[in-house]
Specification:
Strand 7 and strand 8 form a beta hairpin. This protein has helices spanning 11-18, 58-64, 111-121, 132-135, 157-161, 164-167, 230-236, 253-260, 290-299, 302-310, 357-370, 385-392, 406-420, 438-445, 464-473, 479-495, 535-538, and strands at residues 3-4, 35-40, 69-71, 77-79, 82-86, 92-97, 136-141, 146-151, 190-195, 201-205, 212-218, 242-244, 265-270, 276-280, 314-316, 346-352, 375-380, 425-429, 499-505, 507-512, 515-516, 533-534. The longest helix has 17 residues, at 479-495. The protein contains 17 helices and 22 strands. It is globular, with a radius of gyration of 24 Å. The chain has two domains: 12-82 and 117-136 and 159-271 and 506-539, Periplasmic binding protein-like II (D-Maltodextrin-Binding Protein, domain 2, 3-Layer(aba) Sandwich), CATH 3.40.190.10; 276-505, Dipeptide-binding Protein, domain 3 (Roll), CATH 3.10.105. Helices cover 28% and strands 20% of the residues. The strands form five sheets. The protein has a seven-stranded mixed sheet with strand order 9-10-11-2-12-20-13, with helices on both faces. Strands 15-19-14-18-16-17 form a six-stranded mixed sheet, with helices on both faces. The termini are far apart.
């Protein structure tokens, strides 16, 4: 049973926030022209801007909230809102809040406030995708700025706590005395001002002289990819100043080239951290033979895939983790083998294992590359929209479902997974930082279905020895001590050709030339806009 020794919410904070209603901010001549920023988020009111709801967009939430730890520029864990010490037995983690940390209402970030936030998410079934949700047994407040998280067994807790949902810390005063969410309020760099009549969200840095950011949420739909270019259209029309791509962003290379060649815009591209890779069916069929897998791996030209599939905006990758995750054991560059005219021809089926146009595009490009090497590859195409449409008609829902709804996307993913399980090869994409390397490793290779240890996932590419190594990492509390096991994991992947890493797409932003200060990194769920300014204001 989860226990907390922290006190209940401070009544004075509750009374202050009880009367708060997010403001509708009308256009006003006394406000500086806001910088209009497009971020990926499913549409909705400001009540979605909490890490305790899986809506509202990751990048938007990181403007307001902080996690206790985060992934740094090299991919390693580093302190964010708190520093830590790990007990020798790996079962408890003692945290110290960053000195001087405050919420946007000026109140101090305390250990008690953080413990209250843990109480609101730990143990709820919607968070079971995060293994820590089942490992945390107790959170005790040791002092005003120190607290301890205790687990039922040794576990690498810190990597989980870098996840924005549900781990980013919400201030107690974000809720009223009845516990109802009233406003986005955290310790991040931006304070929430309110919404415009059109539904955009307005934020401002803690410095009162900072420009106002007007965030325009744009959903990304893999069921209706035609809407994914809407932010680009808005940039061209002058309705936006900045667009920051999120995780799994897939924009046409030709359009990005056009923006890069247009003096009105700037395209920023930095190394990303998700990896596009091939996995194999190991149970039966041609790819059950390790020599066939090795032959496929030698046939692929990563540079050509980057050029064909991404217009050059990606980095070739030969390991499970992207090159930007620098502590992951590296592999040397791989030379593509010349076609062998004497090799026996084999028939294969390849499928996209993600609802993402990129995955299908890569599947077709891989099929083309394998043809000269003796493989006749059939690309499995599948349209999940009919099943998703049927879900839209689900009776008894409180709100009408849309293609953005979780139930609809889940139904489409289930049908896609069924189709992918018939293939010999699958194109998959890791989640990138902060979920790579560990969380994605466990979800893909741990042999669990939805991280439930009682339900092994359908085996289209899980190797028993690799699975055992991955499970070994779950008992190592300190990520530094995991590195030797990661080396064994990578060696096993290479030795048995269990997957073929292809490339890591870049993290992208596009902005008008009169705007500056967008800072991107390999963490695909965060963007630093604290230095965002209009260039004219800087001259």
């Amino acid at each position: 049973m989860l226990r907390f020794s922290s006190a209940s919410l401070v009544w004075s904070c509750l009374l202050v926030c009880a009367s708060f209603v997010p403001a509708q901010v009308p256009p006003s001549d006394d406000l500086a022209a806001p910088i209009r920023v497009a971020l990926r988020a499913r549409l909705g009111a400001a009540d979605r801007l909490t890490p305790l709801r899986y809506l509202g967009g990751f990048e938007t939430k990181t403007l307001v909230y902080e996690t206790l730890v985060r992934r740094g520029p090299d991919g390693r864990l580093e302190p964010a809102l708190a520093n830590w010490q790990i007990a020798a037995d790996g079962r408890s983690f003692r945290f110290t809040v960053r000195p001087g940390a405050t919420f946007q209402d000026g109140t101090a970030v305390t250990a008690d406030a953080i413990a209250t936030h843990f109480r609101r998410w730990v143990g709820l079934p919607e968070h079971d995708w995060l293994p820590a949700n089942r490992r945390i047994r107790e959170v005790t407040v040791d002092g005003a700025d120190t607290f301890t998280v205790r687990l039922d067994e040794p576990y690498p807790l810190l990597g989980d706590l870098a996840a924005i949902n549900p781990c980013a810390i919400v201030a107690p005063a974000a809720r009223d005395w009845e516990g109802e969410f009233q406003r986005p309020l955290g310790s991040g760099p931006f304070r929430f001002l309110g919404t415009t009549p059109a539904g955009q969200w307005r934020f401002q840095g803690r410095d009162a002289a900072a420009p106002i950011l007007e965030v325009h949420p744009f959903p990304r739909s893999n069921l209706d990819p035609s809407q994914n270019e809407a932010p680009l259209d808005a940039l061209v029309a002058g309705r936006l100043d900045v667009f920051v791509g999120g995780w799994d962003e897939d924009l046409p290379a030709a359009r990005l080239d056009a923006f890069a060649n247009d003096p009105r815009f700037v395209v920023q591209a930095v190394p990303g951290s998700s990896v596009v890779y091939l996995s194999f069916r190991l149970l039966d069929g041609p790819t059950a033979d390790v020599e066939v897998r090795r032959r496929i791996a030698r046939a692929l030209d990563r540079q050509a895939l980057v050029a064909t599939c991404e217009g050059g905006r990606a980095d070739p990758c030969t390991a499970w983790a992207a090159p930007s995750v620098r502590f992951w054991p590296r592999r040397p560059a791989v030379t593509t083998a010349a076609p062998d005219p004497t090799a026996p021809r084999l028939a294969l089926r390849i499928a996209a294992a993600r609802l993402n146009p990129r995955a299908l595009r890569v599947a077709r490009a891989v099929a083309g590359q394998l043809a000269p090497h003796g493989f006749d590859v059939d690309v499995v195409t599948f349209d999940p929209r009919p099943e998703a449409a049927a879900t839209l008609q689900e009776p008894g829902t409180v709100k009408p479902l849309s293609i953005e709804s979780g139930a609809v996307r889940a139904a489409a993913n289930r049908s896609l997974q069924r189709a992918a399980e018939t293939a010999d090869l699958c194109v998959e994409i890791t989640h990138g930082l902060p979920y790579d390397p560990q969380l994605t490793l466990v979800s893909r290779w741990g042999g669990f279905e939805n991280h439930n240890e009682d339900e092994p996932r359908p085996e289209i590419g899980v190797d028993a020895e690799l699975q055992a190594l991955v499970r070994e990492t779950l008992a190592i509390a300190d990520e530094v001590r995991c590195v030797p096991v990661y080396a064994q994991i990578q060696a096993r992947m290479d030795e048995q050709a269990l997957l073929v890493p292809l490339y890591a797409p870049h993290h992208l932003a596009i902005h008008a030339a009169d705007v500056d200060g967008v800072a991107l990194g390999p963490d695909l769920y965060r963007v630093d806009l604290t230095r965002l300014r209009r260039v004219a204001h800087l001259r």
